[in-house]
Description:
alpha+beta; 15 helices
Amino acid sequence: MTDAMNASGAELGAGDAGPPKQIVGYCEPWTLRAGESIRLKASSHQPGPAVIDVTRIVCGDPTRYGPGFDERDVDAIDSWSVELGEQPLTPGSYAVADVRGMPAGGPYIGFRLWVMPTNVRGWQRIATLTAPVPESLECRRLTERDPDDDLTLPLPADLQFEDSQDSSPDPSRVDLALDLVDGQLMARYPGRGIFLGQPHMGMVPLTAHRWYLIETMIDTHADKIYLFVTTSPSASPGRDAQEVSLGQKGVAELECWTFFEACGPHDVEDSVDDQPFEIYEDVRREMPSWSDQGRALQAWGVDPWPTTMFRYPPNPLFLPERGWPEELDPAELWLGAGPDGERFDGRIARPVVVSGGSSCTWDLESDMAARTATMKPPLVDDPGAGRLVLYQLPTRATTGPAWDGSAHRWIDNPAHFDAIHFHHDDLYDAGWETTVEATLPDDLPSGIYAFRVRGSAGEDRVPFFVRPAAGAPTADVALLMPTATYMAYANHRMLFEGADFIPTKTRLRPEHAYIRDHPELGRSHYEKHPDRSGVMFNSRLRPVLNLRPGADGWNFTPDTDINVFLEDLEVGHDIVTDEDLHHEGIAAIAPYRVLVTGSHPEYWSTAMLDALADWQREGGRLMYLGGNGFYWRVAFSEDWPGAIELRRAEDGVRNWQTGPGESYHAWGGEYGGLWRRQGRAPNEICGIGFAAQGFEKATYFVRDPGADSSRASWILEGVPGERIGTSGLGGGAAGQEVDRYDVRLGSPDHAVVLASATTFGPDMLRTKEEFEGSVLFPTPDPYVRADMVFYETPNGGAVFSVGSISWFGALARDGFDNDIARITANVVQRFADSEPFGPPPLG
Length: 843
């Protein structure tokens, strides 16, 4: 290891702030009540002893703009002395089905599937069918070199095995493996292989983002392996001209009689009309005439013996001279992977396994949120037998080979959305062993807490959120921690990869340097997968390095600035999270008179938004202390706890957008994208909505001329002067992302605009959804504005919104002795008062 490498093997950035992290962890759950249990799962690249304790994070902001890092020991919870070791991360989504209920295969055993590669570079495993080594061969294992090895056929000269490809098969398994090697197909089983990329075959590589019907089969009697590929006509005649395997039939027609049946070990001319070799009989969707259909098939494949076969790898156990068993017992079908860690970037649809004259497939059209798919036809009476089980959360509700644009909501025509998109970097659950488990005291105060892990290799803090014990008294005020937003940004890479609206940084804190150096952590909703598809699913069941005190200036750390402000005010407050609100609905916030948001509550599920609206109708008082809130719709799933789904449909500030036909959530079938496009713009819930973003500088608010004579003048008591929030993080209280009052979008007519900010830098531009027929706009732009508003809601409730993410950065100036802190305190104290607000004026 050189000096430029850290102990985990990652290269150090030239200007990183601090030594590289060695200890990381995550906890389950993120949010719990006092009296409940929580588990920490920790790992260290340098094994050794560590001490773990629980601390309370009052403020996680160590910067000079904040009130200072404030961490307090929790004496009520004992510490632990542990030995930390390294726990690996193994990303990559895949699916596995147990097919041991199928009859033994012979002479033909194999599979057929539709495949759309989305990344054709490198060596990838599309699918694997495994079988145990037959007992008849167990006695033939050799301990010395077999002299017949010299008779093996060579591997194609232009194909070399990578280090990741195991050159020796598992002696307990027979794998029929289908690989994609730089766009060319290869099928192999122990001792035999066929590669369609050999120069004399003239086969062009598969094209990314095109559907292909592929089938591969073993003939156990002849010791042959078959591999065929075909594709249907696309919408592009130009692209079709490049496909040597182009069939002239559509998806359904190609599936009726496949190439292996027509041109494999059995000749079309010898078949009797409507009496083909029917290996797919069990799964056919249609039955056209065999004589007409069979002769119309076109695919790429040749007789595999001897010119196209090669010995892969040399293995004396399976030499044909030693005899091949007449039957194999299929065990498992792997999709998007192999049993030895191989992975695939692309989509797979309509998989079919053939064995013993029978065939089976799986229902990928139903229950898009489920972690399993049902086998059909069922092999036994047990409906759970043969289920296809999904791992690491591959993408569902994606268009399949039959999709033709006639349906955009998968519920309307599920057969057009029967594909699963696998990514080699998907990571839903790290699956680490529990390091320590803690049961919290029943009387532990609600707050932000963390597991503090300290060892010889370094330290880590893993935050979690504690609510009052069930049945315990609550405060009048609650701080809503936006955990859905934390999940959306989990391990975001924007600080070093950049984005449209954020420049890259060369000096990273250890947390972001770790994310850069360890791509196996998985990505956020702000990145694309390596195949350029957007990250639609995100999880907290893994280390989330930007959810650390001081890790960056977005989301969690700023929200702790609001937390410490409430502590300093001594009004008394509890902690509630987005997940609590989603799962419990209004019951999660019903005990509270006042709900204070974090600085950036951007991502909301339908259940969350419904609960907040219902709470407001019952007299709840909302303080929205941020910007760009209530913006994107997300979904949760009981089948995949700890994860969210996002579809960036239509419009909005986004780093990627959903593909055609894929704007509806797999989890629940709702239309994704902006809440504004659902008829529920943020203005409807908090009086203002996302207007503009820019990060060069923050600025000040200007007092509205009518504010001091309005019914909301009490909010500005003790705040002299026309300008408000003239200093703070970035230069003022208004900045980063700002929200505007707009009656057109649902802002209440009776709201009082107390102050507005307009003097931003030239980088502060209106949001994309505000552009219509032209990108030209006036300067200054009347839509680029941050508005501070107040208005009343039913049953004595009210709303106060500040319209700026940068508000938090001005709270702590001069020890909370400033105009922004005074305004916020005025509102908190009045909102916490039981006296109801009067009804809004009519007209």
